[in-house]
């Protein structure tokens, strides 16, 4: 045992930090975690979980509308936003206490307060200095907004999850995950939503067919997508915000939300003093074992700017604890990482986009399907599901799989396992479908797309 107070001090009790700390504690290491907010991090407190609960809440509007042609009538329907927020917060409290128990049950000491590195083996929290053999930085990221005049009037996803009341109109700036997800939530709850994107299409980096199909579905739901548009400034007059746009026009709204990316939370941590190098965008540089430029200091999750997804941060934290305290040195595998955008309808994806696959393999075979799901033949809802498989013709291996439509995240999770195992198109074809389902399309697509 070293002379330090701890074997590991983790700064940041989010998904990655908690996973690493509780495993390390379970392996017998002496571990402390410092956290200045509540334990849980972005995913549990300000991201994935509260967002998905609000999405569930918004979807009931669709279910009730769709139910009419199935014979249901609802005499009086209204929505109580405060009740949804209150119940969502109760669930977050429950998750927070589960996280606290996980730490406690694995003998991890929680130090409440902002952790600052004093040197490579010393952390100061709330005026107390503690020493440690290893340090893990897992402080995540924070919404980043462009510095335009009036940006102080804009809210981020943090505040959008806590609004006192629903606005009549809302402008959402950005075309990434968060922007399209929140557009779906607020439009579903009856807010007039305009999404302003500086590019020509939403969701840069996603497969082109998914991007185009989702923007069509969002527009069918009454969401206006203003492409090739930038906000120059925001002014406030009374309760109304006026957004000046690059085309010289202006827009009025009751609420302006920015979802223009997230930046690593590296300021004020003393990283420079401890010899930890940062990238130009402020994130921490790490090697494939999550080690920073200071050999006993590690970093995992969004603070490192690799793939900003909770399950990836968890895998990184897990690998780190295994390496430091369980004699199992291994790297996180970043191939075929599936992800979902919980837009309305959702998109889920694993592997390469068509563009990426063409660049990598030259020619690829595309199998796709665009159909009205069975449920909507009676409901009457004009909503399509779109599926796409990308195959390397030389090896027959499926190298990309994409879906937009109901249940896409649930379906693609299973496909991701097949792709991790290197499944070929012939193996997809020889798999028996589950009928009637949308998922069976993935094993029944026989015709290649021409051209
Ligand atoms: P993203 O990086 O996904 O998207 C940022 C968006 O903002 C892009 O459309 C980008 O446009 C636009 N943008 C950036 N800077 C400006 C600017 N100055 N003016 C106008 N537009 C701008 O970020 P998000 O904030 O949506 O999400 C952050 C990350 O969190 C995601 O990348 C994802 O990894 C993770 N996340 C994952 C979720 C999930 O798994 N379901 C849900 C939510 C977040 P352009 O494309 O032109 O660059």
Overview of this protein structure:
- The chain is α/β, with parallel strands linked by helices.
- The protein folds into three domains: 6-143 and 263-325, 3-Layer(bba) Sandwich (FAD/NAD(P)-binding domain), CATH 3.50.50; 151-260, FAD/NAD(P)-binding domain; 339-443, Enolase-like, domain 1 (2-Layer Sandwich).
- Helices cover 31% and strands 24% of the residues.
- It contains twelve helices and 21 strands.
- It has helices spanning 15-26, 41-46, 48-67, 81-105, 157-160, 177-188, 208-220, 310-325, 354-361, 375-379, 408-420, 425-429; strands at 6-11, 31-35, 108-112, 115-119, 122-125, 128-137, 141-143, 169-173, 192-196, 224-226, 231-237, 240-245, 250-253, 256-258, 262-264, 297-299, 339-341, 347-351, 365-371, 385-391, 398-404.
- Strands 1, 2, 3, 4, 5, 6 and 16 form a seven-stranded mixed beta sheet that branches. Strands 17-18-21-20-19 form a five-stranded antiparallel beta sheet, sandwiched between helices. It has a four-stranded parallel beta sheet with strand order 10-9-8-14.
- Strand 17 and strand 18 (347-351) form a beta hairpin.
- Helix 1 (15-26) packs parallel to helix 8, helix 3 packs across helix 4 and helix 3 packs across helix 6.
- The longest helix has 25 residues, at 81-105.
- The mean pLDDT is 97.
- Residues 146, 173-179, 181, 197-199, 204, 259-262, 308-309, 339-342 line the site of NADPH dihydro-nicotinamide-adenine-dinucleotide phosphate.
């Amino acid at each position: 045992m070293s002379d330090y107070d701890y074997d590991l001090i983790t700064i940041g009790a989010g998904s990655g930090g908690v996973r690493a700390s509780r495993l390390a504690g379970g392996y017998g290491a002496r571990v402390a975690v410092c956290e200045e907010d509540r334990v849980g991090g972005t995913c549990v407190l300000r991201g994935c979980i509260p967002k998905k609960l609000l999405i569930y809440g918004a979807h009931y509007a669709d279910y009730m509308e769709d139910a009419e042609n199935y014979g249901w009538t609802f005499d009086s329907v209204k929505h109580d936003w405060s009740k949804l927020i209150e119940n969502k917060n109760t669930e977050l409290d429950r998750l927070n206490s589960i996280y606290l128990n996980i730490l406690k049950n694995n003998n991890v000491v929680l130090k409440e307060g902002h952790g600052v590195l004093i040197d490579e083996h010393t952390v100061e929290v709330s005026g107390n200095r503690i020493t440690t053999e290893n340090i893990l930085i897992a402080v995540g990221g924070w919404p980043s907004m462009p510095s335009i005049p009036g940006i102080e009037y804009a809210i981020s996803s943090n505040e959008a999850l806590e609004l006192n009341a629903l606005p009549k109109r809302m402008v959402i700036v950005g075309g990434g995950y968060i922007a399209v997800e929140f557009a779906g939530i607020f439009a579903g709850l009856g807010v007039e939503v305009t999404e302003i994107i500086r590019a020509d299409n939403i969701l840069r980096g996603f497969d082109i067919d998914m991007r185009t199909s989702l923007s069509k579905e969002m527009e069918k739901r009454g969401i206006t997508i203003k492409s090739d548009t930038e906000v120059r400034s925001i002014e406030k007059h009374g309760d109304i915000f006026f957004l000046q746009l690059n085309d010289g026009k202006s827009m009025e709204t009751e609420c302006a939300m920015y979802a223009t990316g997230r930046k690593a939370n590296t300021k004020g941590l003393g990283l420079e003093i401890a010899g930890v190098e940062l990238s130009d965008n402020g994130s921490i540089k790490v090697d494939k074992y999550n080690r920073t430029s200071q050999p006993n200091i590690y970093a995992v999750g969004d603070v490192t700017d690799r793939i900003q997804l909770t399950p990836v941060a968890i895998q990184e934290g897990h690998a780190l604890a295994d390496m430091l305290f369980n004699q199992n040195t291994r790297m996180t595998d970043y191939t075929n990482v599936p992800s979902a955008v919980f837009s309305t309808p959702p998109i889920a994806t694993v592997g390469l986009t068509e563009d990426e696959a063409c660049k990598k393999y030259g020619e690829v075979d595309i199998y796709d399907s665009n159909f009205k799901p069975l449920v909507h033949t009676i409901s009457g809802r004009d909503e399509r599901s779109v599926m796409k498989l990308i195959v390397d013709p030389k090896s027959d291996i499926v190298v990309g799989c994409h879906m937009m439509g109901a249940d896409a995240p649930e379906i693609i999770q299973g496909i991701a396992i097949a792709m991790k195992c290197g499944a070929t198109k012939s193996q997809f074809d020889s798999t028996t479908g589950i009928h009637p389902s949308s998922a069976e399309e993935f094993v029944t697509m026989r015709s290649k797309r021409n051209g």
